[in-house]
Specification:
By secondary structure, the protein is an alpha+beta fold. 18% of the residues lie in helices and 28% in strands. The strands form three sheets. Strands 1, 2, 3, 11, 12, 13, 14 and 15 form an eight-stranded mixed beta sheet that branches. The protein has a four-stranded antiparallel beta sheet with strand order 4-5-6-10, with no helix packed on it. It is elongated, with a radius of gyration of 24 Å.
Length: 343
């Protein structure tokens, strides 16, 4: 990503300087990624829809399905393994008391959900799609799919210890990047032709099942901040022509100058349509997903984006992202990013 513009050095207030103004889009993943199968189950849940109501960009990706093995209650804890059939399982322990889900001595019921009909059997349970904790009145206190549990543990510091390498489950192949600015993400995906094509045409990556809907995964992205970074251009001789992809502004460093005032005012806000358009286009340009039939050919000079508003450059930061995204065309450009600091 480009560097931030440099702040102006001390200069004669009447000297015209060359300025640049960049926008940094700061986004977050507001809800754990869900499989297409889970999407169909959760689309009527009001609490989930509320958490995703401000998400305007989404990623459709895929990896082998994860499941829970050897799920059982022992000494008040819930013990389990996470598996994908491609390597050693990762063991974990959920302590309901430590997580504040139950009081000491309070009865807890443990249930599992399954992607297919499962015979009634005593624990430990294998091939479970979810873990559910209920109180004595059968009210749900908490539930996790493997991906939901990994996201909350790795991105939000949920106190669940693991034995093994949970990060090996965090790599996804991106198929499509889209936006849902003018309608809810749920409405957009429910009627999305490209989404249906991916479900129909993509081959299963995992083992022991034949349902792509268990592997196709939806990541929702929400823009939470738009930072403006203004500074003096650190560039070539003044006689050199401006680079074709940069907007350069020339005015003195004088707050009384109308050009300075226009340059310093805020040009966009996080939830503006131009920010969503820019965010989507930047991600498509970065990854070049196969199912994005219309590629971004002239990024950053796109219609309706931040460059059209005058910004010289755009930077991206995705916080709370413990994932490695890749495509065949774009490789894995975000591999090694710090999930705490973003990329």
């Amino acid at each position: 990503m480009p560097a931030d513009p440099k702040a102006a050095a001390d200069a004669n207030p009447n000297t015209e300087l060359e300025w640049m103004k960049a926008a940094r889009i700061v986004a977050e993943i507001p809800y754990p990624p869900v499989s297409a199968w889970e999407f169909n189950q959760l689309k009527t849940e009001a609490a989930v829809r509320e958490r995703l109501q401000d998400a305007t960009v989404y990623i459709i990706a895929q990896r082998p399905i994860l499941w829970f093995d050897r799920v059982r209650a022992e000494g008040g804890d819930v013990k389990f393994e996470i598996n994908d059939g491609h390597g050693p399982p990762v063991k974990g322990i959920i302590d309901p008391l430590r997580l504040g889900l139950f009081e000491p001595g309070e009865p807890m019921l443990l249930e599992c959900g399954f992607h297919r009909d499962a015979e009634e059997a005593p624990p430990p349970w294998d091939r479970a799609g979810s873990i559910k904790l209920l109180d004595r009145d059968q009210r749900l206190r908490a539930w996790w799919s493997p991906q939901k549990l990994l996201f909350e543990a790795l991105a939000h510091d949920l106190k669940v210890p693991f034995a093994g390498d949970p990060e090996r489950f965090m790599e996804f192949e991106i198929h499509y990047i889209g936006k849902a600015y003018d309608q809810s993400l749920w409405e957009r995906l429910a009627a999305h032709r490209r989404f249906l094509e991916i479900l129909i045409n993509e081959k299963v990556r995992g083992v022991d099942h034949s349902q792509p809907s268990l592997e196709i995964t939806i990541f929702a992205l929400e823009v939470v901040h738009l930072e403006e970074l203004a500074g003096v251009r650190d560039g070539p001789d003044a006689a050199a022509p401006d680079p074709p992809h940069l907007n350069i502004f020339r005015h003195p460093d004088d707050p009384a100058d109308p050009r300075w005032q226009a340059f310093r005012r805020r040009w966009a806000h996080p939830h503006d349509a131009a920010v969503t358009t820019e965010f989507e286009a930047a991600l498509i340009d970065l990854f070049k997903p196969e199912h994005n039939k219309i590629q971004v050919k002239k990024y950053p000079k796109i219609a309706g984006g931040l460059h059209a508003l005058g910004y010289s450059d755009t930077l991206l930061r995705l916080r709370n992202c413990p994932y490695i995204f890749r495509t065949e065309a774009g490789g894995a450009p975000l591999e090694g990013a710090d999930p705490g600091d973003g990329w």
